[in-house]
């Protein structure tokens, strides 16, 4: 998340230089580091919008700091402007080669420094916005399929290193075509939005991801092997919305069917795991919808998850 006020990290081994730059950038949220190691430490722990980096510093110089920033996923997209007294064109070229976005030469001119900083922050904001939109489903505002596929690839690589299990789930809204035909497309869209919101709300922990996978299909990626609990949570969360569905044969309310796989990267591949979830989803539909079919590839357990029946009304007799 980017805060309203851009956050800028100023890195220079001479506090007097930091002071000059800071005065030029009054109004921004400013942070300081007087050596490269400290700068890197701060850059991974906080989402900066821009880094102003001195080239000549003892121990770790600006080039080395920049190379490190570009090699880390967390910091590689932060724009870096070099601030240097050197006027050697080779050094400038080297900085650009390493991925610096601009150069400011000491002694700095406050108005020019401000203008360049503003420009690069604006470019970064625009790019962040584009990336956000490219990864977001337009109708429901949750992650789209592209983002899901990217997250799955990333989670898979992480799980390969850690040997941790993953749960993949495909969810389909029961009789959604009938819902659209009966209630109209606008209520149909609203129904998808409510389901998306409920899923996102139920699975917003850490690296868990809820995505719209297409049409009336959603996908979940969950760290760990608690697939059965998660599947139950999905079925209950959608039932709890109590969206009336007069044309459903599965329930009086909008319900979902789902297929889930609990697995580990040493057992299968992402595409194969998704196909397996898809087959389980199909089986859940065939078996009457409003249920989940889960295959735990680690324990070998297969389960069918159905909604808990409503509590029978208790009538107290005199
Ligand atoms: Mg210096």
Topology pattern, helix = H, strand = E? EHEHEHEHEHHEHHEEHEHEE
Bound molecules: magnesium ion
Strand order of the biggest β-sheet: 7-8-6-9-10-11
Question: Low-confidence parts, pLDDT < 50 over ≥5 residues?
Answer: none
Portion of residues in helices?
A: 40-55%
Largest beta-sheet characterization:
6 strands, mixed
Extended strand count? 11
Radius of gyration: 26 Å
Euclidean distance between termini CA atoms: 60 Å
- Principal-axes shape call: elongated
Q: How many alpha or pi helices?
A: 10
Determine the strand fraction and express it as a percent band.
15-25%
At the fold tier of CATH, the topology name of the largest domain is: Alpha-Beta Plaits
The protein's oligomeric status is single chain
Helix and strand content put the structural class at alpha/beta
> How many separate structural domains?
2
> Could you tell me the mean pLDDT?
92
CATH homology superfamily of the largest domain: Reverse transcriptase/Diguanylate cyclase domain
Description:
- There is one protein chain.
- By secondary structure, the chain is α/β, with parallel strands linked by helices.
- 44% of the residues lie in helices and 20% in strands.
- The protein is built from 10 helices and 11 strands.
- The chain has helices at residues 15-24, 36-45, 62-71, 89-98, 110-134, 145-162, 176-183, 185-202, 227-240, 270-286; strands at residues 7-11, 29-33, 50-54, 80-84, 102-105, 166-173, 209-214, 217-223, 256-263, 291-296, 302-306.
- Strand 3, helix 3 and strand 4 form a beta-alpha-beta unit.
- The N and C termini lie far apart (60 Å).
- The mean pLDDT is 92.
- Bound molecules: magnesium ion.
- Magnesium ion binds at residues 12-14, 54, 56-57.
């Amino acid at each position: 998340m980017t805060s309203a006020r851009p956050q800028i990290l100023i890195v220079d081994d001479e506090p007097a230089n930091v002071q000059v730059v800071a005065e030029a950038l009054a109004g921004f949220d400013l942070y300081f580091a007087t050596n490269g190691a400290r700068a890197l430490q701060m850059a991974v722990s906080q989402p900066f919008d821009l880094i102003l980096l001195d080239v000549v510093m003892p121990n770790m110089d600006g080039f080395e700091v920049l190379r490190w920033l570009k090699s880390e996923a967390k910091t590689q997209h932060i724009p870096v402007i070099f601030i240097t007294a050197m006027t050697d064109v080779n050094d400038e070229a080297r900085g650009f080669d390493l991925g610096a976005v601009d150069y400011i030469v000491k002694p700095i001119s406050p108005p020019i420094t401000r203008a360049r900083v503003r420009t690069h922050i604006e470019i970064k904001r625009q790019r962040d916005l584009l990336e956000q939109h490219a990864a977001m489903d337009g109708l429901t505002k949750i992650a789209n399929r592209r983002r899901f596929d990217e997250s799955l690839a990333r989670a898979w690589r992480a799980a390969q290193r850690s040997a941790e299990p993953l749960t993949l789930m495909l969810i389909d809204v029961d009789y959604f075509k009938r819902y659209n035909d009966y209630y109209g497309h606008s209520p149909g869209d609203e129904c998808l939005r409510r389901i998306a919101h409920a899923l996102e709300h139920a699975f917003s922990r850490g690296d868990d991801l809820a995505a719209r996978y297409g049409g009336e299909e959603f996908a979940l990626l969950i760290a760990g092997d608690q697939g059965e609990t998660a599947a139950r949570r999905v079925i209950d969360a959608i039932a709890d919305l109590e969206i009336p569905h007069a044309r459903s044969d599965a329930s009086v309310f909008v319900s979902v069917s789902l297929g889930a796989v609990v697995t580990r990267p040493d057992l299968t591949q992402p595409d194969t795991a998704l196909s397996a979830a898809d087959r389980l989803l199909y089986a859940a539909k065939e078996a009457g919808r409003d249920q989940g079919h889960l295959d735990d590839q680690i324990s070998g357990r297969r389960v069918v998850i159905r909604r808990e029946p409503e509590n029978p009304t208790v009538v107290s007799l005199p």
